[in-house]
Specification:
- The longest helix is centred in the last third of the chain and has 36 residues.
- By secondary structure, this protein is mainly α.
- InterPro entries: L-PG_synthase/AglD.
- It is found in: Cell membrane.
- This is Lysylphosphatidylglycerol synthase TM region.
- It holds the Pfam family LPG_synthase_TM.
Length: about 325
Amino acid sequence: MVTGRARRIVRIAFLLIALGFGCGAVASNWDGVAAGFARLSQRSISLSVAAVVAALCCGMMTWRALLADLGSPLPVRRAAKVFFVGQLGKYIPGALWPVIAQMEMGRDLGVPRSRSAAAFFLTLPVQLGSGLLVAAVALLTAGPDALAPYAWALLLVPVLAVLLEPRVINTVIGFGLRRLGREPLERALTRRGMLAAVGWALAGWSAYGLHLAAIVGDLTASEDVLTVLLFSVGAFALSWCLGIMTFVVPAGAGVREVAMVAVVSPMLDQGAAIAAALCSRMVIIAGDLLCAGAAAWTARSSVCARPDESPRNAL
């Protein structure tokens, strides 16, 4: 039986190998990478950061919609604090740190741990299913050849579509809780709540696409803005979905960037593609930190402004 220590060693080794190959790719194409970064404008970077913040907020609203449908509607400020601060745990090796953080912070607001865990794990298939669908539509519209090497990933779309049907997912959740010896959830998911979550997820992919398009627009010779936008939406959604399928590295580190370089290669040379992937990663990290800091500050300000209001009463 594999011990916890052995699993940590495997994760660290995987990450080091991925980083090694990534550094090698950057070094071998350094002139092109440096030239790509030099072509990025301050305006594009600013637009990219703003789009990422909007996308991250849509992700928070996806999770909040699921949590509300399960019976724990949270005010936006407090939901943002739990979600964004908890999401910083994704940068720690191991897939469970974000959900552990959200469960503990949610408990302080009267949210049962099982409900927080259910909302967290439901967010992943919602984002994965909507992301693969968006990638297929966007890349097919922008250029069918760009999607061909990754068509196998689309086989998950019908599986996820069935899984996200409330009657199916409620049965799966109930079975899992019984196997774990836990009490069933007080409220079942509804189709209305699931549609709200999917709607926010689709809005998030549009914002993520705009974030990448702002970067790619400076690096490509194409003047077709619509094609660049559609291509960027599809490329980011596909690379993110491939990254989320890899749970052994923090936040899909390395996997998403490798996939993004490959997907955008029809539009960018390798040096520019690597620059786009690295810049995208840095912008997303900055967005995570900005959202976590802003959410914590606004939530604290809200509590300080109403010192007589307890968290449970605020619900």
